[in-house]
Amino acid sequence: MEQVDILIIGAGVVGLAVAKELSENYEDVVVVEKEASFGRHTSSRNSEVIHSGIYYPQHTLKADLCVKGGELLYYFLEENEIPFKNCGKLVVANNDDELEEIYKLKANGELNGVEGLKVISSSDCKKLEPKVIAEYALQVPSTGIVDSHKLMQKLENIAEDNGVFIVYNMQVISIKCLKKEYLVKFSNGELFKAAKVINCAGLFSDKVAEMVGINVEKEDLKLHWCKGEYYKSSKITDINHLIYPVPDPKGIFLGIHLTINLQGEVRFGPNAYYVNELNYGMDESHKSEFLEAIQKYLPISENEIHLDDCGIRAKLQKEGDGFRDFYIKEETQKGYPNFINCIGIESPGLTSCLAIAKKVNSLINT
Ligand SMILES: Cc1cc2nc3c(=O)[nH]c(=O)nc-3n(C[C@H](O)[C@H](O)[C@H](O)COP(=O)(O)OP(=O)(O)OC[C@H]3O[C@@H](n4cnc5c(N)ncnc54)[C@H](O)[C@@H]3O)c2cc1C
Question: How is the chain split into domains, by residue range?
Answer without folding.
Answer: 2-45+149-222+323-363, 89-141+224-315
